[in-house]
Structure to design on (686 residues):
């Protein structure tokens, strides 16, 4: 379980197919479009994030809360529930499960019992953050760049990725996207197009020692004295045991999220989103 | 709108009574009560016989029942137990059949086990055969090794929490204090100031350690091993109570009991002992010799390897203390009699069963006074828990860490 994602409830019961996810949303899609529903999901992810910030909780707790929220809405439609209450309750439950309990009022305590039941009492959630740290260390990614990938993972919780793909695949996609977006232009450290990406041998990055250690222990013992080479990024990605189509799918999803997010921000300003919400919630 | 949603859920929900028939009352505590029950639906076994399935249903009362102002819903202990039991799957961990929610209270349906390790309470203290003890210990270590491999600390191992089925299979139960200790968001001490029932509490915890490890579970197993061998707790100390300011008191009496058998720990045995928060309190103790070997000679086992394993589990330095994985490979288990997954295999000895009170079989009504004698307030848990209900006689039972 906690040591093995594939035998956990997350791995066994809570990775859905896109088809199954579309089925879950049929009721809501009668009143709003798919695009609009994405915006609604961004809205509530924002609310949960804001709530988390106000409570000064760690990012992992926010991510768990958003995942609970999304899992809940794979079994219920927005129309028949009170999503603000569900959102707050998910935060309350996430704090409890992540062993950082917070005091919230009675209403939520009651709602929590229902949410917990909807979650089939499966409450341990895996997140891409840990995989990101492992991957970044192996690749020798600079701290600034790891931070960027971390932000991308935060943003991925505005999409359905946490319901569709295992966390380590999302982490890989975030790292890929970070390198694609920032790599060539700003840093020159990484390149997804050239086979000999150079640099990042500053020694300051923790990953360098790891790579050297591994190389030393490897079969090319005769080359111990050569200057540390940076990993071939393309080769590195190719050697990961991760489905590249899934990576591409996640990357595309996140990029289209960013496009839609701009539109969304405008609608928040113009009150368009409130109209959308009241239409969805039948108010 | 939410009322409508709730009503819909209520109608969809399966009532506990619809699926299970309560056979009797097993035990109670601050968390709620445990009942023995059978499934109303029987299953056909391989030989075509109708088989009844028996379960233990743990019914939690909502936190601070009745007090709507401070109602916080499902207790932390229920949350932990449910979330972990949903993930864990192992022959030596009690298996959770399902969870039912009814009237805001959680019902956890576990597989039923006829026996437990609580033998110090039996009227006739007949020694347990070495084969049975060794099989118990091996299976207990096997289950704990699985927990530890999954980054789970049990934190409340004691005879009452370790169950045994009719087929002699050990089932570790009560994960209400268990937690994942991989990358905790806060130090473990912040969450729970006091863990493990006093008699089974490791010396690093008694000395106020803020960061403890899976070694605390191994200490408890060492105490349980000794208890199975002699039918009485090895370190039967008295717990100092929490004061009004909720400061964790220094457990002088418990440490005295440990030092009487193992001697006062030295810096050689435990190099970092002087870094323990309560280290200064050790000045009050005189140094004493290790008498564990003398103790072992009073036991039912004559195995030298058994003694070595016991000493390794009761090692003072948590860093040096044997791990569950190492213990499973200990020479003691290579000696005859070899341990088995059926601890009762071929034994003429009748192992005592847990007591089930059949007069209390209504889940909605609290058990009668005779079957659930209200014990004295036991060990406090953060000073916030109330009276502890004990079942049966309290003789020879440790004060409960919590309900």
């Amino acid at each position: 379980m906690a040591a093995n994602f594939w035998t956990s409830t997350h791995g066994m019961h809570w990775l859905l197919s896109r088809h199954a996810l579309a089925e879950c949303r049929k009721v809501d899609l009668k009143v709003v479009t798919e695009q609009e529903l994405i915006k609604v999901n961004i809205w509530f992810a924002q609310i949960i994030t804001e709530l988390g910030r106000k409570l000064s909780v760690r990012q992992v707790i926010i991510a768990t809360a958003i995942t609970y929220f999304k899992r809940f809405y794979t079994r219920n439609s927005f129309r028949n529930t009170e999503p603000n209450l569900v959102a707050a309750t998910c935060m309350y439950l996430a704090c409890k499960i992540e062993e950082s309990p917070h005091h919230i009022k009675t209403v939520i305590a009651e709602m929590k019992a229902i949410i917990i039941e909807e979650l089939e009492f499966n409450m341990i959630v895996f997140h891409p953050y840990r995989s990101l740290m492992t991957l970044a260390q192996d690749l020798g990614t600079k701290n600034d760049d790891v931070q960027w990938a971390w932000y991308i993972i935060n943003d991925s919780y505005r999409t359905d990725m946490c319901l569709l793909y295992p966390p380590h695949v999302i982490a890989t996609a975030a790292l890929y996207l970070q390198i694609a977006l920032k790599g060539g232009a700003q840093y020159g450290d990484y390149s997804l197009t050239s086979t000999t990406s150079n640099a990042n041998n500053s020694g300051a990055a923790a990953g360098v020692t790891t790579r050297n250690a591994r190389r030393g222990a490897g079969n090319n013992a005769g080359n111990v004295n050569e200057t540390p080479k940076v990993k071939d990024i393309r080769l590195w990605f190719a050697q990961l045991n991760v489905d590249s189509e899934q990576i591409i799918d996640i990357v595309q999803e996140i990029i289209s999220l960013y496009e839609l997010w701009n539109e969304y921000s405008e609608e928040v300003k113009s009150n368009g989103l409130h109209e959308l919400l009241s239409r969805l919630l039948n108010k | 709108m939410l009322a409508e949603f709730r009503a819909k859920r209520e109608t969809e929900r399966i009532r506990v009574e619809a699926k299970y028939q309560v056979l009797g009352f097993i035990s109670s505590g601050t968390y709620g009560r445990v009942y023995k029950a059978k499934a109303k639906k029987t299953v056909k076994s391989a030989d075509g016989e109708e088989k009844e399935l028996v379960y233990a249903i743990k019914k939690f009362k909502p936190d601070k029942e009745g007090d709507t102002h401070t109602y916080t819903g499902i207790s932390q202990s229920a949350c932990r137990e449910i979330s972990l039991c949903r993930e864990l799957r192992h022959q030596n961990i009690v298996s959770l059949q399902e969870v039912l929610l009814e009237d805001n209270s959680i019902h956890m349906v576990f597989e039923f086990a006829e026996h437990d390790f609580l033998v110090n309470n039996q009227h006739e203290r007949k020694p347990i055969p070495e084969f049975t003890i060794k099989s118990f210990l091996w299976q207990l270590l096997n289950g704990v090794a699985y927990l530890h491999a999954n980054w789970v600390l049990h934190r409340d191992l004691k005879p009452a929490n370790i169950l045994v089925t009719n087929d002699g299979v050990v089932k570790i139960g009560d994960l209400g204090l268990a937690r994942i200790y991989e990358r905790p968001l806060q130090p473990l001490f912040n969450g729970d100031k006091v863990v493990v029932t006093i008699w089974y509490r490791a010396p690093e915890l008694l000395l106020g350690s803020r960061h403890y490890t899976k070694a605390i579970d191994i200490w408890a197993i060492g105490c349980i091993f000794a208890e199975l061998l002699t039918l009485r707790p090895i370190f039967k100390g008295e717990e100092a109570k929490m004061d009004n300011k909720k400061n964790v008191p220094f457990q002088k009496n418990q440490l005295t009991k440990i030092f009487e058998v193992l001697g006062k720990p030295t810096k050689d045995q435990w190099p970092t002992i002087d870094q323990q928060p309560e280290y200064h309190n050790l000045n009050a103790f005189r140094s004493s010799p290790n008498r564990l070997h003398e103790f072992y000679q009073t036991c039912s086992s004559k195995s030298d390897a058994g003694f070595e394993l016991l000493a390794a589990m009761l090692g003072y330095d948590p860093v040096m203390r044997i791990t569950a994985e190492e213990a499973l490979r200990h020479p003691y288990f290579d000696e005859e009699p070899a341990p088995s997954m059926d601890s009762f295999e071929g034994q003429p000895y009748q192992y005592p069963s847990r007591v089930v009170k059949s007069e209390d079989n209504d889940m909605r009504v609290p058990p009668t006074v005779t079957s659930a004698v209200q014990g004295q307030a036991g060990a406090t848990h953060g000073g916030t828990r109330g009276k502890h209900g004990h079942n049966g006689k309290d003789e020879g039972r440790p004060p409960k860490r919590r309900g």
